Amino acid sequence: MKKVLVTMPLTGQGMDALKGRFNVTHPDKGRYTRDELLEIIHEFDGILATGIGMDAELIRAAGNLKIISVYGAGYDSIDVDEASRQNILVANAPESVTESTAELAFGLMLATARNIAARDRWLRNNPGSRWGMMMNEGQSLYGKTLGIVGLGRIGKAVARRGLASGMKVFYFNRNRLDREEEKALGVDYLPLDQLLEVSDVVSLHTPLTPETRHLIGEEQLARMKKSAYLINTARGEVVDEKALIRHLEQGSLAGAGLDVFENEPHIPQELLEMDNVVMTPHIGTATHEVRLEMTREACQNIIDFFDGKMPASAINPQVFESLYHK
Fold first, then answer.
1. Model-level pTM?
2. Vertex 228 angle, CA 225 and 262, to 5°
3. Per-residue confidence at 138, pLDDT binned at 50, 70, 90?
């Protein structure tokens, strides 16, 4: 029987199905450390990687490993090139995270534009305070321009929410969609610099790659309107955090909604002290329903692979071809 390692305890129908097919090992609580994985990973045929990176050293230590199934959409913590060299398939779980991450991104837009979190703190910290018609003004999203950087699954889900709220939606993507799809989605393409210049809200939905690291830096932030908001539910490193702090301190950006940070879990003190910044602790996929679906999707990758079927979300499909179609 194939042996599968799950790096932290998971529950649900996905895990039940995995345990029904394979010899599954996981910690009773918490998660395996990298050193613990280095000691045991050579024993396993597959791994469901939850919240831990797989660097080249760890992958080379996995002498029997055939598949790494990532618990989530982002796979920047996996050395895919090394996995490919070792003939290990990498697959992720992109479908299950779409709507919940889009919900959070739009929630951060509302919270920043309408000062929801800051006004909540004000009420709690100042009992008995008075307020009036001309106080506590924010900005409406209705009628504003939403710029989406990265129109993949999540970006498209955010676009739907923006359009439903009466926003004009532009997007920038590495590869432009065909005109018919743009028309069907109700979005228009702009180069990145132009998108930044015209948008009232910029929402980031790109994967982290060498090309997208600090995609939004000093030059890009300087192009944004002083009244604009930056929303990041992608990866912290997509934004130059120090440059973002400077623009927020200088008042050249109205605010930011951040679910991710450049050096997680560290958050710069400057951001913690800003009332025009709304922060959440990387919770884009953190709903009960989505966690169960992520587990099912990640487990299904492993089941499909050992059944001789290409996982739907294979990152390096050439490995599957080389293993099953020699």
1. 0.91
2. 110
3. confident
Domains identified in the chain and CATH numbers: 3-96+288-324 (3.40.50.720), 98-279 (3.40.50.720)
Active-site annotation holds for 103: no
Q: How many whole angstroms from its chain centre is CA 139?
A: 26
Contact of 203 with 257, CB cutoff 8 Å: no
DSSP state of 274: -
- Catalytic residue, candidates 57, 181, 264, 321: 264
266 is an active site residue: no
Walk across the sheet containing 229-232 and list its strands: 188-189, 168-172, 145-149, 201-204, 229-232, 255-258, 277-279
- Active-site entry in 26, 235, 247, 291: 235
What per-residue confidence (pLDDT) applies to 325? Answer: 62
Tens-place pLDDT, residues 250-298: 999 999 999 999 999 999 999 999 999 999 999 999 999 999 999 999 9
Q: Dump the DSSP string for 77-90.
A: TB-HHHHHHTT-EE
The DSSP secondary-structure symbol of 293 reads: H
Take residue 39 and report the two structure tokens written for it: 């000691």
Considering only CA atoms, which of 77, 18, 45, 54 is closest in space to residue 295?
18
Q: Is 235 a catalytic residue?
A: yes
